[in-house]
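Translate sequence into structure tokens.
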Amino acid sequence: MSRATWRGLAGGLVLLALWEGVVRGLGIAPWILPPPSGILATTWTVRGALLDAGAMTLFEATAGYGIGAVLGIALAMLLALATPLRKLVLPMVVAVNSVPVAAYAPLALLWFGTGALSKIIMVAFIVGFTVFLNTLDGLLRVDPAAVALLRSFGAGRLGVLWRLRVPSALPAMLVGLRVSTVRSMIVAIVTEMLGSQKGLGWTIFEAVLQIDFLRVWAAILVASLISLGFFAAVGALERRVVFWR
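Result follows.
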């Protein structure tokens, strides 16, 4: 592991030790803020249920992530080629994206049910916007002189897109993909909390109803670990693809 990774792990351990010490030293009630040791013990006790719930949430997040990423990149390429269409569609896309995800989740549950499909569609919806906006920004941020040079050699719009715009847009595109890993997990969990019978979101909601706050924190811990792993995987892909940065 890199030095930065070791520093991050060391910082995390120091934070957990301080958390443990403050909670025990001040005698804070566990339903207000439990100690990390209690969270870890509960996580181990209910590890089977948490693993099943985490697997469901991860499936919904990754499936929606893949669909949203493909659709977002494809739409960005289309609008990069069609300027009149871009001027028409882009304001509507920004307007729709400005509404909080919680406002759309009840509609998705109403239209597609409380199963995995509604969560996948919601994740794809949010991830698609993020990837689309980042990719489109990267596709349009090219040197006009480079575009003119390629056209002087006979390249058409598609030639300019594949030979210049797409390579130039890779850093922005991959930033959007990396940021979307966290958003995909958040959206999946929020939608599960509003209507589901499986997943980490449902586990958190059910534990709150049962006043089992240690299980709430255990589910949050599992969700955080999954998000970190997802984020790290896409970050590693970004370092391999955009190796010159």
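Note: The domain at 50-241 is CATH 1.10.3720.10 (MetI-like fold).
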